[in-house]
Amino acid sequence: MVSSPRIQTTTVGSYPLPDWLAALPSEQTLVDATRVVIDTQEKAGIDLVCDGELYRFDVNHPETNGMIEYFVRAMQGVVSEISFADWVSFKGQPGVEFRRRPPGVVVAPISSGSLDLPRACARAKALASRPLKFTLTGPHMLSKTLLKVDEANLPGAPDEWEWAAEAINRVLRAIPTTPAVHLCFGNYGGQTIQKGGWAQLMRYLNALAVDHIVLENAHRPAEELEVFKELRPEIGLGLGVVDIKQTVIETADTIARSIERADRILGSGRVKFVHPDCGFWMLKRSIAD
To answer: How far is CA 41 from the centre of its chain?
Structure first.
């Protein structure tokens, strides 16, 4: 019997969109594209594969890969008709420069509406022969972009960690399998969106009801790794070892050195997963592959 490796490989979620899906979107081309993305990861030997988040593909919202619109468009209590006054109000908020328009306006108590995540997950699971990870956008990011406060996600607003942790823990505790959380400092056009560092977010990370976290590390200062000595030992550390904000492809040796350095600083066995810093969707397929 072959045992699992001490450190497993995974992807964060998104993958470059096949051109033919964008050209001829349909249920069948979506299934075909998802099959290609999963097969690419499996042939590369990835332990925990993802569907590339193609399930939320929306040709009308390429700048955010559907990571917001797919969810809020289906939810009850949210309208997508944006008035000029709404747009002006949204445009005046700091931290939303990556958005041209707000994704929606909350007009009533929110419920799931027609959002059907189990169907999207089942479609991908049927195509995978390895363990599958299914991803969804968290409540902090959805609420911040909908309600037009001041930031798009938590690393840019670490002082909001208490309500952000309470909100996402409601989601995590409902997951019947293995819950994990990804955080990064933004990736829009290869640019970092959020300022700050991981030290400001340790209280949030330690409050998570989670098996492991999936973090941006390769693009961050090397000395920042020290702060994860404060991470609760029950939480597995997912170490970002591929910098997706550049187009230079790391060698296997470069990635190995990053893992060994984390082992030296944090102790052998602390790192549970290695992965890219963030999703691959803004890169060319040749680079991601």
So the answer is: 17
CA–CA dist 60, 168 (Å, integer): 28
**Total domain count for the chain?**
1
CB 265 within 8 Å of CB 233 = no
Q: What is the DSSP letter of 123?
A: H
pTM for the structure as a whole: 0.86
Whether 276 contacts 217, CB under 8 Å: no
Using alpha carbons, select from 271, 175, 179, 276 the residue that is nearest to residue 228: 271
Token reading at 125: 């699971």
Distance CA 81, CA 66 (A): 17
Q: How far is CA 159 from the centre of its chain?
A: 21
| Beta-sheet strands, E only, within 139-260 | 180-183, 212-215, 236-242
Query: Where residue 137 sits, what CATH number does that domain have?
Result: 3.20.20.210
Q: Which domain holds residue 161?
A: 8-288
For 36-69, the pLDDT digits (tens) are: 999 999 999 999 999 999 999 877 766 566 788 8
Structure tokens at 106: 């909350």
Q: Tell me if 153 sits within 8 A of 192, measured CB to CB.
A: no
